[in-house]
Amino acid sequence: MTHYLRVGVGGPVGSGKTALLKQLCLALRDHYDIAVVTNDIYTREDADFLLKHDALAADRILGVETGGCPHTAIREDASMNLAAIDELQSRHPALELVMVESGGDNLSATFSPELSDLTLYVIDVSAGDKIPRKGGPGITKSDLLIINKIDIAEQVHASLEVMDRDARKMRGERPFVFTNLHDGVGVEEIVAFILERGMLPERRPASQRAGAATATLGEAPAGA
């Protein structure tokens, strides 16, 4: 069986998990063999969103209806997600990367090691600049913390400087990135992180990488 990288994407409801998956699919689909599993409690809305926006072909996206607490399906009993990954791997034997989006959950959500090699955790500024210092495994232990919606920080009276300071304090040496996923700001850093930490070869042309809107890991973009 071909080994593939498993990336877990977690975060509260509305933080931008599905927007992140869309951006990652658009950035990677022409260069890597990828697939996505989404988790919703009662619907397959996130999977439908990705299909509607042509993020990937339909046979590369599976929606799982967990029917219960979202974190159970990614931690205590990951069987539904593991079955979905097995199905995607059987459809695409050369699969290199599968991304698993959890249902919206609280700051304590974590992925089972069976399900994820790397974890990305998405929060957003609309919940307030206090979120990083609240801690929880998603904030402190994820491989990459993503602080999204920096474009509305001023409107919601959230200080990116405070979030930067607190993220550094809570995470130590673990990286984080500020993003505006709607406009693609910060996506290049996330892609580069996945490729490097996941030990996937860089196949994207230099022109594609150079033209991306960027935000340095651990630093809010200038003018944000």
Question: Could you walk me through the main structural features you see in this protein, from its secondary elements to its overall organization?
Answer:
GO terms for molecular function: GTP binding; GTPase activity; nickel cation binding. The chain has 224 residues and is an alpha/beta fold. The chain has one domain (5-210): P-loop containing nucleotide triphosphate hydrolases (Rossmann fold, 3-Layer(aba) Sandwich), CATH 3.40.50.300. It has nine helices and seven strands; from the N terminus they run E-H-E-H-E-H-H-E-E-H-H-E-H-E-H-H. It has helices spanning 17-28, 45-52, 70-74, 79-91, 131-134, 137-141, 160-171, 187-197, 206-210, and strands at 5-10, 34-40, 61-65, 97-101, 118-124, 144-148, 176-178. Strands 3-2-4-1-5-6-7 form a seven-stranded parallel beta sheet, sandwiched between helices. The longest helix is centred in the middle third of the chain and has 13 residues, at 79-91. The radius of gyration is 16 Å and the shape is globular. The termini are far apart. The model has no long low-confidence stretch (mean pLDDT 89).
